Amino acid sequence: MVWKSNHCKFRLEYDSPWEIIDYFSDNRDKIMVGIVDKTDNASLIVKIVPDVSKSQVSDEQYYEALKKQMVESNPGNQLLFEGELGFKDQKFKRFIFLMNIKYGNFVSNDYIHRDGDKLTSVQFSYPNNLIGDYIPPVPDKIQKILNDIQIW
Predict the structure, then answer these.
(1) Residue 134 — very low, low, confident or very high, per pLDDT cuts 50/70/90?
(2) 82: closest CA among 69, 92, 90?
(3) Which one-letter DSSP state was computed for residue 138?
(4) Distance CA 31, CA 135 (A)
(5) What values do phi and psi take at 106, rounded to 5?
(6) In this structure, are residues 80 and 134 in contact, taking their beta carbons and an 8 Å threshold?
(7) Rg of the chain over CA atoms, in angstroms?
(8) Domains of the chain (ranges plus CATH)?
(9) Is the dihedral of CA 92, 63, 41, 77 positive or negative?
């Protein structure tokens, strides 16, 4: 199955058991689409939204606020990793959080790219597969979707 934006150069391919999350937005100002695998509640959400000027909110300020929000929203949440990665020919900030949500402990990966005009966020979560302090690779079913995402 394919979800393609009518207003932005973005395309998401996915197969069963993944399905589109009911709430999504596709207009000139905001793209937000998500998919969920209801067999284990893994999810992937992509947002492409207007960014604030980096002179108003620096990357450091933005990312510190994001970390604080993610960690403080629940006492069981914690930041496991912060770094950068190349994704779809752009440099993204990467965060990995352990999240305590209603379905249990989940690993949440956030890839974020800001350019002061547009903010692109790819967030995916899956049941906790951590082994001690070792963070295993992204599950194959999510990596396949990440490989097939088209943002241009």
Answers:
(1) confident
(2) 92
(3) P
(4) 30
(5) -125, 150
(6) no
(7) 15
(8) 2-131 (3.40.1000.10)
(9) positive
**pTM of the predicted model as reported, rounded to 2 decimal places:** 0.91
Give the per-residue pLDDT at 72: 93
Pairing mode of beta strands 78-87, 42-50? unpaired
Give the pLDDT confidence of 72-128 residue by residue, as tens digits: 998 889 999 999 999 999 999 999 999 988 888 899 999 999 999 999 999 999 998
Measure the CA–CA gap between 26 and 31, rounded to whole angstroms: 5
Sign of CA dihedral 10, 114, 145, 151: positive
Concatenated DSSP letters for 78-144?
A: EEEEEEEEEETTEEEEEEEEEEEETTEEEEEEEEEEE-SSEEEEEEEEEE---BTTB-PPPPHHHHH
Question: Hunting for tokens 């001690």 — which residue is that?
Answer: 132
* Rounded distance between C-alpha atoms, residue 24 and residue 129, angstroms: 28
Please provide the DSSP assignment of 26-90 as one string: ESSS-EEEEEEETTTTEEEEEEEEEPPPTTTS-HHHHHHHHHHHHHHTSTT-EEEEEEEEEETTE
